[in-house]
Amino acid sequence: MFRKVLIANRGEIALRILRACKTLGIKTVLVFSEADRYSLGVKYADEAFCIGPPQASKSYLNIPNIIAAAEISGADAIHPGYGFLAENADFAEVCESCGIKFIGPSSKVISLMGDKIAARKVMYEAGVPVIPGTFEPVEDEKKAISVAKDFGFPLIIKAAGGGGGRGMRIVKDEDGLKGALMIAKSEAEAAFNNGAVYIEKYIEGARHIEVQILGDGKGNVVHFYERDCSIQRRHQKLIEESPAIGIPKEVKEKLLESAVKGARAINYEGAGTLEFLLDKDNNFYFMEMNTRIQVEHPVTEMVTGHDLVKYQILIASGEEMPVKQEDIVQRGHAIECRINAEDPFNNFLPSIGTLKIFSLPGGPGIRLDTAIYNNIEILPYYDSLIAKLISWGLTREEAISRMRNALEEFLIEGVKTTIPLYLRIMEDKEYIKGNISINFLEERGFLNGERG
Ligand code: MV4
Fold first, then answer.
1. Ligand 1 pocket: which residues have CB below 6 Å?
2. Is domain 4-103 annotated with CATH 3.40.50.300?
3. pLDDT of residue 450
């Protein structure tokens, strides 16, 4: 087992990883930027190293400084959390060549799944249903038109180097095709240094369903069921839940089995997520794979009772699969609301200032993952997530009512937050019925201040 782990992240996920290390008796090193000098992570870690100024590019993305901190402190492994360097194949490769274990899959697998065309191909060959579309980059209009003949409109053009909704364009008809292709290619080149784009049939009114898997890199893969992450704004998830309701049993079984099959095909090591779209007829299609622990992993932990971050560390240290599939059962229902320091009534404008905490939520089935404390300064350098509020109940109704109570109890001032939006959503009749899709917020008027 590792003696010492370096955590290359900040905020709530840094605390989450610190806690997992402590339960395993592993010493912790945290790297932090000048903006995070007074963070809870710095207090709780056994050692902490400042790695640069607030801008992420000079600190949390500064590979040489992070490696230097690992070497000086004698850390055996680095946990990247999510965001920042978590899916950076170059970073994983540097760790590999320095003899520091990157807690996650190999740099090879990260870069394979980072190439969204290659990922589609691998999954298709493994027998996982993928979205109808191309398995090669689409170079010109002629090819795009022939793709349109095969699949029909609407289509979606995606960047091979993109993912998570970055570098996508929906095309409604042939008139828009040429221009969209050219713009998509040049944007992809500029954003990802890779102008390759591919085309898929656009699946309308879909739900975003993802499957949590864990592999040990020795051929064993288990799943921890699914999450519904349909409630998003501009590809930022706001509310996630597990289980995904209303999916026929046979479909769900096939979905979970497909995810495991896909992960096995790449001999996956670590925690990962296969993202799928579920159409109105309950057909599911692989979209992309995330090779990291995700923000929303707590809903899965709440319904299964398993500690996913602990398993990440055990597997990275060389252990075989620490859990049997039959010991992973989905019990009850969990919902996560991402509390952001943003004004939901003013176009989600980021809000900064000194946070005043008057009351934190609690009670049965409530989990709060956060690194906030009274009088902390909320600064504009990083994403605006300040807390993740998770509720669990025996039924979805109970999870919703506990969430509503917890949101009411959560009294903070000094910055605007998304809490009042979530209070309204928890009372929305379509949300309560489970009528959700990726268009939910727009369709229900929660954007542009109509209701939200
Ligand atoms: C799609 C899609 C529909 N059809 N692909 C968004 C995140 C990234 N993982 C891929 N995404 C989507 N891909 C096909 N073929 C719908 C989404 C999508 C989405 C698209 C537009 C606006 C909001 C969205 C929210 C979630 C998913």
1. 131, 156, 164-165, 200-203, 206, 208, 232, 235, 275, 277, 287-288, 438
2. no
3. 59
pTM comes to: 0.98
Q: Which member of 207, 292, 338, 402 is catalytic? A: 292
Amino acid identity, position 78: I
The CATH number fitting domain 132-201, selected from 3.50.50.60, 3.30.70.1170, 3.40.50.300, 3.30.1490.20: 3.30.1490.20
| Cα-based distances in Å from 374 to 328, 352, 355, 360, 413 | 38, 14, 6, 11, 10
State the DSSP string of 192-244.
Answer: HS---EEEEE--TT-EEEEEEEEEESSS-EEEEEEEEEEEEETTEEEEEEESP
CA of 442 to the centre of ligand 1 (A): 14
288 CA closest ligand 1 atom index: 9
Q: pLDDT digits over 336-363, tens only?
A: 999 999 999 999 999 999 999 999 999 9
